[in-house]
Write a structure and sequence with these properties.
This protein is of the alpha/beta class. It has a single domain, classed as 2-enoyl-CoA Hydratase, Chain A, domain 1, CATH 3.90.226.
């Protein structure tokens, strides 16, 4: 009996424990084509499906790593805002929802701002993360967008904003809607100072975000097949009593109708933004661009 308890049982338990310790997220299924992709291959591809080229959503930290030179950047701290100004509660208390989102993402709120070199040019970049309460625009997110504009003014640097949002944050009511004019005013100061403001629309960009700072860029770039629109398809169809095209509100549809300037593949995003920044700030092409014989102008492009 001692031999069974002391030798056999521990060995069996170790075998089962090893199986339980094996991560269950080693493979990811593409939501577009159903292809199973090994997690390291997916990360190396910047979360772009190697089979169908579908652009999956990219986290804040991963997005910064694809943009700043040698992943060298500094996070810009934003001013604190009231935690629960309306004492809002639906199925859960608003502070509880915030706590869950912060634990899940490791972020204070939906928008994170950083500055660092983009192809050697000091640039301010803000990332709106859809995984944080649907990237919804609240007071903290609005404050972050404004802080990014202020730092860009201070450093006389271009400002790039990646959007991904379901709209305004209902738990903050009118205070959330007030972020639309506040961010608009901050971005107008950038325009008056002659500093570039580039918007990159990622999947999805909708609601009050699209109705404010997402459409105020000097140049509007979109990722392939990103959902871009104010209201949902069903709401619009019920309002106008017409059937909408299948590709309605896609990045390609918006490009065709003049709402965005170009569609850029994620693998080419950094190079494209670097060329735009140098062109708009009247800087010479970098050594990398010259060696690659990259043209000085940036043409409208689409995903390969």
């Amino acid at each position: 009996m001692n031999w069974i308890n002391n030798v056999v049982r521990p060995k069996i338990q170790r075998v089962f424990n090893k199986k339980q310790q094996t991560p269950d997220n080693l493979w990811h299924k593409c939501s577009s084509c159903g292809e199973m992709i090994f997690h390291r291959d997916l990360e190396a591809a910047m979360r772009v499906c190697p089979n169908c080229d579908h652009h999956m959503r990219l986290g804040t930290k991963e997005r910064f790593a694809t943009l700043f030179d040698k992943n060298d950047y500094q996070i810009i701290a934003t001013d604190a805002v009231a935690l629960d100004p309306l004492k809002f509660r639906d199925q859960k208390k608003y502070p509880d929802r915030l706590k869950e989102a912060r634990t899940k993402t490791g972020r204070d709120d939906a928008v994170t701002v950083a500055h660092g070199p983009l192809d050697g040019v000091e640039t301010v970049i803000a990332i709106e993360d859809f995984s944080f309460m649907g990237g919804s625009l609240g007071m903290a997110a609005g404050e972050a967008v404004i802080k990014g504009a202020e730092v860009a003014l201070e450093k006389k640097a271009p400002y790039i904003l990646f959007t991904a949002a379901g709209g305004a944050r209902m738990q903050e009511g009118i205070l959330s809607l007030m972020q639309m004019p506040r961010t608009t005013v901050a971005l107008q100061l950038l325009r008056e100072a002659g500093l570039p403001f580039i918007v990159v629309l990622t999947d999805p960009t909708t609601g009050g975000v699209l109705a404010s700072y997402a459409m105020l860029g000097d140049v509007h770039v979109a990722e392939p097949k990103a959902l871009i629109g104010f209201s949902g398809r069903r709401v619009i169809e019920q309002t106008i009593r017409e059937k909408l095209p299948d590709d309605f509100q896609s990045a390609e549809f918006q490009l065709e109708h003049g709402m965005v300037d170009m569609i850029v593949h994620r693998h080419k995003m950094k190079d494209t933004l670097a060329r735009l920044v140098r062109l708009m700030t009247h800087r010479p092409r970098s050594a990398k661009q010259q060696s690659a014989n990259v043209p000085a102008t940036v043409a409208v492009s689409s995903a390969p």
